[in-house]
Design brief:
alpha+beta; 4-stranded antiparallel β-sheet; 3 helices; about 35% strand; disordered N terminus
Amino acid sequence: MMNLTKIAAVSAMILSLGTTAQAATMNFSQGQTENASAILHAEGEGVVIQDGVLFADYVVGENLSVGDTFNGRNTASNLIEVDGGTYSSHLIHFDPLGSNGGSASGTFDFVGRIVAIIVSNNTSGGGRLLNDTDALFSGDTYEQSVSRRSENSDVFQLIDGNTLAYDFRTVQGYIDNVRVVTAVPLPASALLMLGGLAAIGLVRSKRRRV
């Protein structure tokens, strides 16, 4: 009999397949990727995170909801734990041309549902959330100074569950970085398989009742 426990086990097996993919490494130190626009970089895909390891400035369902507008933070003020699970990470990176600062705005869409957003990187002792979470998702090279963060003047909006709007306003030679953590969606083939397994289980259940 194909029961729900077996279906869940198959689901977990499918989710575990192909979840170690990672984009080519990049150097995001100051001055290495100067651009008039912000860029989006896929850091790690399908990374398993344990409980008590990942903390963020904004977590959907905790202090962030769809439609909310919020600002960047120089310093982490509310460290919110993200439940353990399998996640993907994406870096929104803005290193303006030259050393006088700049601005950039737009939206980025993500395949997976947005779970958490990390913007702060100012103080030591648990306040450098961007630096603290680099190694969880990526082998990229990052700027290590406190100038790598999202400023208080930066404005964001969670448009929907998969879309984030940004409006960066950098000063001097600062870099704006935002890390967006997303859930890992099941591939379409896996969803079809699970649907088929569930249908088989339902048919067998009905036959036993006859």
